[in-house]
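Running this now, will post back.
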Amino acid sequence: MVYIVYMFQSFFRKIKLILSDRGLVTKLVFVLIMFIVLRFLTTVPLPGIDTAALTKFLNNNQLFAFLNIFSGGGLTAMSIVALGVGPYITSSIILQLLTMVIPRLKELYHESGEQGRQKFSQYSRYLTVVFAFIQGFGIISILKSQGIFVETSSLVVIQNIIVLMGGSFLTLWIADLISEFGIGNGASMVIFLGIVATIPKHFSQALFSYEPTQLFTYAGVVISIVAMLWLTVAINEAERRVPVTYTKQSRNGITTGGADTHIPLKLTLAGVMPIIFAGSLLTLPQIIAQFATVSNSSLLQTIGNGLTRFQNNQLAYGIVYFVLVFLFTYFYAAVTFDTTATADRLQKGGAFIPNVRPGTATAEFLGVILSRITLYGGFFLATIAVLPLILQNVTGNSSFAIGGTSILIAVSVVIDLIKKLSAQADMREY
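Update: finished.
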């Protein structure tokens, strides 16, 4: 009881310190203003949209539900910022994957410090132009084939693609402003805004579709969501600490080193990237199906119908989704954490892992640990990814289909924001 009281006192003390810090309050207000601006932009639709047809199409489309996460909710009304930071996220992922096969990119990303990271980010923005065009063209083509656009002339199509590309860079600019003048990562905050914006819709749908006979079902779903949120926080913060000891060095009669530290290996080292990879890959069949079903070729129509049946088969879709997330977790962990480079840095810095030889043996030891924790992390991510599908099929209510990606991103952003605010409060306190 005393501990709980102490926690509340500490919480309110930090809140008071945050509110008394004019600079921090200014940053929070700036983020709020940017959120308002972005939400306003999401209400400005592209010209020539049939709103009723768009709403009907979006309610039964997993592809656009997935892409809507990165748009800040802009796809709901097919707004001028419908692409959001999606093209930038895609280009960043592609470049990170290319670091495995292009040594120059690997050196730039991992070994060139802050200047190298800025150069890497610049390359990502160049590639964003390409993906913004591709995604804009794909979305416009799909909506055009569904009769959602009233005007379908080539000039209007080109105009809308250009508007979507401009809206994507406008969203990216707002994200950069949040990163520079606000608090937190701008791109993550934009995605977080899109997730939060969908909560009232899902809540209202669940509320209005409630029947007394579904009391226990709803109670079970609520308990499952709360447990999933708690587990997500716990797993997100879980880490395996590998002990590291620095050797003692004596120069001019002064002894340095000998300190003990650790290498923190997070259980979810890959973060939400495996889910994003898998989700992006599973959207390809739907994109292909949209084009194939309206083709004049009987072969393409057969392929399109087969892909559509796969998308509609929840069991097959869920199994493939689970396996892909699990495999991508291992893949991305290998990309983000180079065991050989880490072992070399430890050896050059005069550090070693107790009872492990420096060099190759250290790299192998870290590789074994990484494989073990990735096994648990991959299983957790895959389970979180398919859990909304399970809830939707158990309850028969589509309002419970809040994506695992959304939950993980939202939790990660909130935890990161709390840590930064807490750090600012601690600095002011001392």
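The longest strand covers residues 239-246. More later if anyone needs it.
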